[in-house]
Amino acid sequence: MSVALIAHRCRTSDRSPAHSRGVEALAPLFGKRLGREPREIGTPAAPRVGDWREDLADSRGCLLEAGGQVEDALGGGNAPVLLAGECTVGLTTLPAVLRARPDARVLWLDAHGDYNTPETSPSGYLGGMALAGACGVWDAGVGGSIDPGRVVLVGVRDLDDRERELLEESPVTVIGASLETLVYTQNALDRSPVYIHVDLDVIDPESFPAQFPAPGGIAPDKLYDLLEAVSLECEVIGFEVTAFEAPEDELERQDAASTALRVLEPLLDAVGRGAHVSG
């Protein structure tokens, strides 16, 4: 299995310039680690607080291309590794994954549920509707939908009231950040092939920068342990990394990027080696 490294540079619903810096900082590090030049989608645009309808319309082409590249990679027997500014990209990548690998599960690591709809979202932030859209709770009109029963949402600790209700009514497996997170995640995945979404704000904000910090997150070493356990038990068919709130200061940015690379090492190793160890 080879690796397809994709850097999604387009603005989707980015409200912070730090996310574009984050993709720019991580892409060469991932490229060096994987021995691949990243294939870029689009070009950065100025962040803004936009209406979800406008953001969806403006980013539609880039979102469809991201889903297409993920599906092409998997169809060719390769592992997609995608870097994006924020989670909206999941609207097309998750349906693409399940079309190519209907046997897979999705492990979505995030401090937030991203399970709002246009009707329930207090902010109208498209990125906060990404997982719900991918699961068909609302129709974004860009990539089909997946069975929410195949989703394991881990590390979540900041939910809006109606978003919480939607998750409680859904078949999504929801696992918070606790001492039992690793074991619960292993049990939920049950050694299935897995595509992993890592929103880096799943890490505790005392250890890593976040645009929307939510206290009580997973410590970097514990996230490493979780990803290592998953990669040893499951076939990691690909993964995506979003929401690196890259500091403006270069030294701080380099330090944070090094932390991210260290935490994600089990996934980089997994896709590099073919990543299937059965028990």
What is the straight-line distance between the termini? 21 Å
Give the proportion of residues in helices. Answer: 40-55%
Instruction: Label the structural class.
Output: alpha/beta
Unreliable runs, pLDDT <50, ≥5 residues?
275-279
How are the strands ordered across the major sheet? 2-1-3-8-7-4-5-6
Mean of residue pLDDT?
96
Shape: globular
Total strands: the figure is 8
Q: Which range does the strand content fall in?
A: 5-15%
What's the quick description here?
This protein has 279 residues and is of the alpha/beta class. The chain is built from nine helices and eight strands.
Which structural traits does this protein have?
alpha/beta; 9 helices; 8-stranded parallel beta sheet
Helices and strands, with pairings:
Layout: E1 3-8, H1 17-34, E2 39-41, H2 52-75, E3 79-84, H3 90-100, E4 105-109, H4 130-134, E5 151-154, H5 161-169, E6 173-175, H6 181-189, E7 194-199, H7 220-233, E8 236-242, H8 250-263, H9 265-273
Parallel strand pairs: 1-2, 1-3, 3-8, 4-5, 4-7, 5-6, 7-8
Helix pairs in contact: 1-8, 2-3, 6-7, 7-8, 7-9
Structural notes for this entry:
- The structure is a single chain.
- The chain has 279 residues and is α/β, with parallel strands linked by helices.
- The chain is built from nine helices and eight strands.
- The chain has helices at residues 17-34, 52-75, 90-100, 130-134, 161-169, 181-189, 220-233, 250-263, 265-273, and strands at residues 3-8, 39-41, 79-84, 105-109, 151-154, 173-175, 194-199, 236-242.
- The chain has an eight-stranded parallel sheet with strand order 2-1-3-8-7-4-5-6, with helices on both faces.
- Helix 7 runs parallel beside helix 8.
- The longest helix is centred in the first third of the chain and has 24 residues, at 52-75.
- The radius of gyration is 17 Å and the shape is globular.
- It starts with a strand and ends in a 6-residue tail after the last helix.
